[in-house]
Write a structure and sequence with these properties.
The structure is a single chain. This protein is an all-alpha fold and 113 residues long. The chain has a domain at 1-28 and 40-75. Helices cover 62% and strands 0% of the residues. The protein contains five helices and no strands. Helix 1 (6-28) runs antiparallel to helix 2 (42-56) and helix 1 (6-28) crosses helix 5 (94-106). The longest helix has 23 residues, at 6-28. This is Protein OSCP1. It holds the Pfam family Oscp1. One of its GO terms (cellular component) is plasma membrane.
Length: 113
């Protein structure tokens, strides 16, 4: 593969992950005035997405990402996305994380690194 493929893969998978997280948080649909302490509100959803997007597009990280380099292994890529998902107040258990990144990663069936 090209030494310039990693940024495209990272941004594509990151976008997929954000879409999935957004859909899951929206599905809870709990009004702020009715939310219990352990429930997610619209403000929480926006905060989570903002935190993850801010981390994804951190200047130093993006500069490093765009340097010509080999693709990360699947294990390394999963670790990056695990840390990315937990860059916010949200915490995912292993099963949720597997669904969150496993689904987009499975779209890249030819990705064997």
């Amino acid at each position: 593969m090209s030494l310039r493929t990693l940024p495209l893969l990272f941004l594509n998978l990151g976008g997929e992950m954000l879409y999935i997280l957004d859909q899951r948080l929206r599905a809870q649909n709990i009004p702020a005035d009715k939310a219990r302490k352990d429930e997610w509100t619209e403000v929480d959803r926006k905060r989570v997405l903002n935190d993850i997007i801010s981390t994804m597009f951190n200047r130093k990280f993006i500069e490093e990402l765009f340097k010509p380099q080999e693709l990360y292994s699947k294990k390394a890529l999963r670790t990056v996305y695990d840390r990315l998902a937990h860059a916010s107040i949200m915490r995912l258990n292993q099963a949720s994380m597997d669904k969150n990144i496993g689904t987009p990663l499975s779209l890249y069936g030819g990705y064997t690194q």
